[in-house]
Amino acid sequence: MATNTLSRSLHDVGLAAWFGGTLANAVALNAAAGEAGSAKSTGAVANAGWNRWTPVNAAAIGAHLVGSIGQLGANKDRVAQQKGVGGMSAAKTLLTAAALGVTAYSRVLGNVVKQGGATPSRRGTKPSRRARADIAAAQNKLDQLQWVIPALTGTLVVISSYAGEQQRPSEVLRGISEKSSTTV
Q1: 177, 171 in Cβ contact below 8 A?
Q2: Three-class SS state of 144
Q3: If DSSP codes are grouped into helix, strand and coil, which group holds residue 139?
Q4: What is the largest CA-CA distance in the chain?
Q5: What pLDDT does residue 151 have?
Q6: 104, 131, 150 from 97: Cα distances, Å
Q7: Contacts (Cβ under 8 Å, ≥6 apart) of 42
Q8: pTM of the entire predicted model
């Protein structure tokens, strides 16, 4: 019997880091940056933190995607034959695409903020009144999006748990028999 521990591990660890890191940054880094001592220092601290997280986040996302492809390949027969697995896989794919899109857009906005240098901020995603208009607009959007990424990736964690339940032998047998009885 073949196992797919490597692809499952890449999928799960990558997703865990993507979810946990973005949640930690939204909860802790952005708020803690506001305690840097001055509005200019706040912007510098937030930029430094997010710049350090970006390559780790990219590696986590890459690991998750490689693991996802491996899991899909390992389970292609179940996707085709077991009732509910195709729909779950489609939902995971759409949510992953949404999370990737929001993550990429957030990085574009983060680069706008980064280009401003140590821009005055009240906290990582709250501009001060002295911030340039383009940077303030990017920070305001980031303030909303910082919660969207953990919400999407957290939902992916839940769907992945459901996918694991679908792999129980009793669920596989039931799902295959239900799908074959509806296609006859």
Answers
A1: no
A2: helix
A3: helix
A4: 70
A5: 97
A6: 10, 32, 14
A7: 33, 34, 36, 120, 121, 122, 123, 124
A8: 0.86
Size of the chain in residues: 184
DSSP 127: E
Q: Could you give the dihedral angle defined by the CA atoms of residues 105, 41, 119 and 149, in that order, rounded to the nearest 10 degrees?
A: 10
Tens of pLDDT, residue by residue over 93-151, are 999 999 999 999 999 999 998 888 777 777 778 887 888 899 889 999 999 999 999 99
Residues forming a β-bridge with 127: 121
Other Cβ atoms less than 10 A from the Cβ of 168: the count is: 11
Residue with tokens 């240098």: 117
Question: In sequence order, which residues have a C-beta less than 8 Å from that of residue 119 and are 6 or more positions away?
Answer: 40, 43, 113, 127, 131, 132, 135
Percent of the chain as helix, strand, coil, to the nearest 5: 80, 5, 15
Which residue carries 């340039």 as its tokens? Answer: 132
Strands 121-123 and 126-127: antiparallel
d(CA 35, CA 104): 28
